[in-house]
Specification:
Blueprint: H1 14-18, H2 24-41, E1 54-55, H3 60-77, E2 84-85, E3 94-95, H4 103-108, H5 110-116, H6 118-145, H7 148-159, H8 162-170, H9 180-193, H10 197-213, H11 215-234, H12 244-275, H13 285-291, H14 309-319, E4 334-341, E5 353-360
Antiparallel strand pairs: 1-4, 2-3, 4-5
Length: 361
């Protein structure tokens, strides 16, 4: 592949010509807007940064995530492998590579973990998911549309989506930080527009980073990469360029370069997973049948709505009495988010305090 290969004229380079004039003001407005949204939608979290964590079901996932952030910081500072902990299942230890460690979130929160502690780090990751996710989506939409206002709306829509808010409610730090996805999408778009070895390396690193933050989002990014590379390659047919088949192969190769980098980075772990004696890969068809989302879930009103939420949950519980988690509803109208915040001193008293606020969607 030629590192000087130019993007397909008329197909992908049109976005660069439509970009608005450069300047710091739109970026400052975007950062301020998404930070304000994060603070407002999670209020009063910012007032209890070091004393409580957001999380459902008595904060079980939240405190597990706090341990993950603490262990990542401890391992990195002491120059130990963060993907193996001798503290669990002592004295044998345990491999954390395929677990919900959230390494990317641990690195992001490293300064906060070391200075304010793991509880503050959990809340910091939640708050930065609004700022980073909104700003990355802003940059992505701005590059595609060339319109600052439209890009601001796109970023706000992404971070205020019912999906993101529901994951914040769950207190699951593996899926609540949705911000790595638009970061990777932006690097992939830049690669497809103007292929080069440097952009391929950046996109590959971003794909690895997404995967280390959440294996779910890493899988989503893999599927997105394949679709995007195929669409970009097939679009060459409509550009009337010479040697279209050769150009198609070149464009597809550039688009799939991040996948190659990801496979190379994770090759040792993948080989150990496949050839391990503990048979880590098993038949999950029954699990998929039991835990897959029903199509009706995506059209039902929000289960956390203060008016009809209890009735919706009661009706669905009759159909799926053994369901553990249900959070794929679109979420309509006014939402009254009920967060359980277990204060460090309140947890010893028994039941945690309950933070409640209103948000309009």
């Amino acid at each position: 592949m030629d590192s000087g290969h130019r993007s397909v004229p008329g197909l992908v380079s049109w976005t660069a010509r439509r970009l608005p004039a450069t300047g710091a003001l739109p970026h400052l407005i975007a950062l301020a807007l998404y930070t304000l949204l994060g603070v407002t939608l999670t209020w009063p979290l910012a007032m209890h940064l070091t004393s409580g964590v957001i999380g459902a079901v008595d904060g079980v996932d939240a405190y597990q995530n706090a341990w993950n952030l603490w262990w990542t910081a401890r391992a990195l500072v002491s120059l130990h492998n963060p993907f193996f902990s001798p503290l669990l299942f002592y004295p044998d230890g345990i491999d954390l590579f395929w677990q919900t460690l959230g390494f990317s979130q641990g690195v992001l929160a490293l300064p906060v973990t070391l200075t304010l502690g793991p509880v503050a780090a959990v809340n910091w990751v939640v708050l930065t998911s609004f700022t980073i996710g909104g700003y990355a989506t802003f940059l992505l939409a701005r590059r595609v549309t060339g319109h600052d206002a439209a890009a601001l709306v796109a970023g706000a829509t992404f971070v205020c989506s019912p999906y993101h808010m529901e994951k914040v409610i769950d207190g699951n730090l593996e899926v609540a930080p949705v911000h790595w996805l638009p970061v990777y999408a932006l690097t992939l778009l830049q690669l497809l527009e103007h292929p080069s070895r440097r952009r391929a390396l950046v996109a590959g690193i971003a794909l690895v980073w997404v995967s280390l933050g959440s294996w779910y989002y890493g899988l989503f990014a893999l599927l997105f990469t394949g679709c995007a590379a195929s669409i970009w390659a097939c679009g060459i047919v409509y550009t009337l360029t010479p040697q279209p088949m050769r150009r198609i192969v070149q464009q597809a190769a550039w688009g799939l370069a991040p996948l190659v980098i990801r496979v190379m980075v994770f090759a040792p772990a993948l080989c150990g997973l496949i050839g391990g004696a503990d048979e880590a890969i098993w038949d999950t068809r029954q699990v998929q049948r039991e835990r897959s989302a029903d199509l009706i879930d995506v059209v039902l009103p929000s289960p956390v709505h203060p008016w009809w939420g209890p009735a919706v949950r009661a009706w669905r519980d009759q159909i799926y009495p053994d369901a553990v988690i249900w959070n794929v509803a679109l979420g309509w109208g006014r939402s009254d988010w009920d967060y359980r915040a277990h204060l460090s001193h309140g947890a010893r008293r028994g039941a945690g305090s309950c933070w409640r606020w209103h948000a309009w969607f």
